[in-house]
């Protein structure tokens, strides 16, 4: 059939091919598989013979890599190995656990992605084998960046890769997890899938990677990482990379590392930061920090700048206020409280921008690669030297140049410079030119006055900054008592210094890395990480102001602003140790009587002779001037007054109380149900009998009035007929218009035309019905029937309203 359906030329070609030996499809697959096994055997042999410390390894082509990985690297224009890649990749290819430490921007991402691809290739991994590699990142932005690099260099592999970072539907991610060979994730989201996603198997995991391992091993991620490692098999390869690596034995034991190889690309270097990075610091008082930052932005309008703050509240306030002031450079802001879609969009916009300024928290301080960043400004002193190294690493990446400026408060200068010296960080002091300084306090104060939302952000920025300084562990650097808080509040444009209470015992890193759902009501720190949770005390009684502080995106009320200020609008901060969990200062909770006393407005009442005042059914004891002044407030006295019972009105306008259901116990106390039912029936029967009697009397009265009206009409008709007959038979010289005046007129009630008032006239007369009909009336009736098409029409003067009228109507119909 196939041959018959082909053309002659096609049949000839088919016969020609039959004469040649063509290998079968199965044989072709077998040959391809055999060649692949031979290539894989040669590759494994080359890896075994590889010397990790060989000085000849300078390019990726010098490494024993499979063709899929090598072609992906060439297509992505990766050729020369960096120091950390030259030291770490050979060790990882041989299956060793690696602890890698290198400067920021030195290529650590490729140092673990290449071993991941090679590990799965050597194991002949397919999508049916499940999860083979797990890469953990502390932030979402860094995880997205790792995933993008993985897609570039792994474009020729057949592995499936996924990104699990939260911000999306957990159900949608769970449906795809079972088919993924490589996962890039954040700790909190990955742990959530391991605990909740049914059928998610990680028992075949081959390699685990922790990027920015020192941050992941911090207290903020400790519980999440420990729980995550419990799900993973111990027979795996583990790679840890960071710019500041930890060598603690406890951390290595927790991750089940087997004889790890420590790789440091800058341990013997002069500086822990890139040599092409120019670092400097400025000593500026806290009250002049925003003035200095504004002057810097106005001077560098054609630059790409990242400004780091210690909390998201400060980021939001500075962004919103500077946006109104329009410095002349595009502004963006990024912090951990934003939605995932917004964070990705802002990251993409800043990466592609030529000029711009990004206000950010430490959420982008590690690993994130923004192209061509000119300046890194640290407006707030970092918590430690490691954080400083990671922040300045956003510029001067991989042989490019960059500059970094650190703002230090005078009390922070000496202590933090010692910390940088210990980390081999060279930095020099610079001064701001006098002509570049400009105070923006008045402008900020004006904008705060115009916008209640901006004023509220300023208050929260003040609170979050002072709280973060107070909770810092390094008291040699962060000296809370030496801060000029009044000047700082004034520099934010606030009318007064918010009054704050503080409490000790919290770790600032734990607060910053805590997940959004785990942040308690008193926490104002920025949530930059994905792990770490704190239990919330639900049994604690919370005041109204504590609940207001818990709300997300709450409206700003001027009364709330006044309440967090002192009486004179310039309240000072209270830095005493307090075990109270309140973060905002609130009024103490008073008992009911004490609240009544406090309502009068005096602190030292002068007691008077007690007296009793009756308010409705209740009594109020007046034993002080406060209580006596309370009598002037009608609103506060309402709870002492007898409010009575609520009434409703039925259709007839009668008032009755609202029907309410009675409790079963109260109903049982009234007596047996049968007796109550009989009483109810007897009462209702009596009401019905009374209503029936009243209805009968009313009907009887109506009938009597109707008969009287009918008799009156008949008498009127007879009188009119007699009067008309007399005038017709009277003197011819009489009044000629008397007859006309005697006739009824339109709208007249049937009076006799004697000139009576309209209100005294009788109602219109109704023609008296007769039970007989004479000949003339019969002829008239027949004439009307002919006019109306032969149908008889019965005319009624009035609508029948009694039995007699109905009988007359029925008789007329029967005659027809």
Q: What distance lies between the first and last C-alpha atoms, to the nearest angstrom?
A: 96 Å
Could you tell me the number of beta strands? 18
**Beta-strand percent range:** 5-15%
Main β-sheet description:
7 strands, parallel
Per the CATH scheme, the topology name of the largest domain is Rossmann fold
Poorly predicted regions: 1-20, 519-539, 552-558, 566-607, 746-760, 768-772
Strand line-up in the sheet with most strands = 3-4-2-5-6-1-7
The CATH class assignment of the largest domain is Alpha Beta
**Total helix count?**
30
What is the architecture of the largest domain at the second tier of CATH? 3-Layer(aba) Sandwich
Taken from the alpha-carbon principal axes, the silhouette is: elongated
Helix and strand content put the structural class at: alpha/beta
Determine the mean pLDDT. 77
Estimate the helix proportion, in percent.
40-55%
Q: Mind telling me the CATH superfamily name of the largest domain?
A: P-loop containing nucleotide triphosphate hydrolases
Q: Into how many domains do the coordinates divide?
A: 5
Radius of gyration: 48 Å
């Amino acid at each position: 059939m196939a041959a018959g359906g082909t053309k002659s030329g096609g049949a000839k070609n088919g016969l020609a091919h039959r004469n040649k030996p063509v290998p079968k499809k199965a044989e072709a697959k077998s040959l391809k598989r055999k060649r692949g096994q031979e290539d894989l055997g040669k590759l494994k042999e080359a890896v075994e013979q590889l010397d990790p410390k060989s000085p000849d390894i300078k390019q990726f082509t010098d490494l024993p890599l499979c063709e899929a990985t090598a072609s992906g690297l060439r297509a992505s224009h990766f050729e020369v190995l960096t120091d950390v890649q030259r030291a770490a990749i050979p060790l990882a290819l041989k299956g060793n656990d690696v602890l890698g430490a290198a400067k920021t921007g030195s290529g650590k991402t490729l140092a673990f992605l290449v071993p991941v691809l090679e590990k799965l290739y050597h194991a002949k991994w397919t999508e049916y084998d499940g999860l083979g590699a797990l890469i953990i990142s502390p932030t979402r932005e860094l995880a997205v960046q790792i995933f993008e690099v993985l897609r570039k260099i792994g474009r020729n592999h057949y592995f499936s890769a996924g990104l699990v970072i939260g911000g999306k539907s957990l159900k949608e991610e769970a449906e795809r997890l079972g088919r993924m060979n490589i996962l890039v994730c954040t700790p909190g989201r990955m742990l959530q899938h391991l605990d909740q996603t049914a059928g998610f198997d990680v028992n075949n995991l081959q390699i685990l990677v922790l990027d920015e391992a020192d941050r992941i091993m911090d207290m903020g991620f400790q519980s999440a990482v420990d729980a995550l490692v419990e799900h993973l098999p111990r027979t795996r390869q583990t790679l840890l990379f960071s710019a500041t690596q930890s060598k603690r034995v406890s951390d290595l034991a927790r991750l089940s590392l087997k004889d790890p190889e420590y790789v440091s690309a800058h341990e013997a270097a002069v500086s822990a930061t890139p040599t092409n990075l120019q670092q400097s610091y400025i000593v500026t008082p806290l009250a002049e920090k925003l003035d200095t930052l504004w002057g810097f932005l106005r001077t560098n309008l054609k630059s790409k700048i990242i400004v780091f703050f210690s909390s998201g509240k400060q980021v939001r306030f500075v962004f919103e206020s500077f946006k109104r002031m329009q410095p002349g450079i595009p502004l963006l802001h990024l912090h951990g409280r934003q939605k995932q879609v917004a964070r990705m969009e802002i990251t993409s916009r800043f990466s592609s921008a030529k000029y711009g300024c990004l206000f950010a928290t430490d959420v982008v301080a590690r690993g994130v690669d923004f192209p061509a960043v000119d300046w890194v400004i640290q407006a707030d002193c970092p918590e430690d030297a490691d954080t400083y190294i990671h922040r300045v690493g956003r510029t001067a990446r991989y042989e490019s140049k960059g500059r970094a400026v650190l703002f230090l408060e005078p009390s922070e200068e000496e202590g933090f410079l010692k910390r940088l010296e210990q980390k081999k960080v060279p930095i020099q002091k610079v001064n701001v030119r006098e002509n570049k300084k400009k105070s923006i306090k008045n402008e900020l104060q004006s904008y705060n006055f115009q916008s209640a939302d901006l004023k509220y952000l300023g208050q929260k920025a003040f609170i979050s900054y002072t709280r973060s300084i107070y909770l810092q562990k390094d008291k040699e650097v962060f000296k809370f008592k030496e801060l000029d808080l009044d000047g700082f509040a004034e520099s934010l444009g606030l009318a007064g210094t918010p009054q704050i209470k503080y409490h000790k015992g919290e770790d600032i890193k734990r607060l910053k890395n805590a997940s959004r759902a785990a942040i308690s009501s008193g926490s104002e720190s920025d949530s930059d990480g994905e792990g770490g949770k704190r239990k919330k005390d639900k049994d604690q009684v919370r005041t109204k102001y504590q609940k207001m502080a818990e709300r997300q995106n709450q409206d700003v009320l001027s009364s709330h602003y006044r309440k967090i200020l002192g009486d004179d609008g310039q309240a000072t901060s209270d830095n005493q140790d307090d075990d109270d969990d309140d973060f905002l200062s609130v009024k103490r909770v008073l008992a009911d009587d004490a609240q009544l006393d406090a309502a009068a407005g005096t602190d030292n009442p002068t007691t008077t002779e007690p007296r009793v005042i009756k308010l409705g059914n209740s009594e109020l004891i007046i034993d002080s001037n406060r209580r006596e002044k309370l009598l002037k407030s009608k609103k506060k006295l309402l709870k002492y007054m007898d409010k009575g019972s609520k009434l409703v009105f039925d259709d007839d306008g009668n008032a009755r109380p609202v029907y309410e259901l009675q409790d079963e116990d109260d109903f049982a106390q009234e007596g047996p149900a049968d007796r109550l039912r009989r009483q109810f029936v007897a009462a209702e029967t009596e009401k019905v009998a009374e209503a029936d009697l009243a209805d009968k009397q009313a009907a009887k009265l109506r009938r009597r009035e109707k008969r009287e009206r009918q008799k009156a009409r008949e008498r009127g008709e007879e009188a009119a007929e007699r009067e008309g007959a007399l005038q017709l038979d009277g003197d011819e010289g009489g009044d000629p218009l008397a007859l006309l005046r005697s006739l009824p007129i339109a709208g007249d009630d049937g009076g006799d035309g004697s000139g009576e008032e309209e209100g005294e006239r009788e109602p219109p007369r109704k023609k008296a019905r007769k039970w007989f009909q004479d000949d003339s009336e019969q002829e008239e009736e027949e004439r009307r029937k002919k006019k109306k098409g032969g149908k008889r029409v019965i005319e009624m003067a009035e609508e029948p309203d009694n039995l007699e009228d109905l009988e007359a109507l029925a008789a007329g119909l029967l005659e027809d």
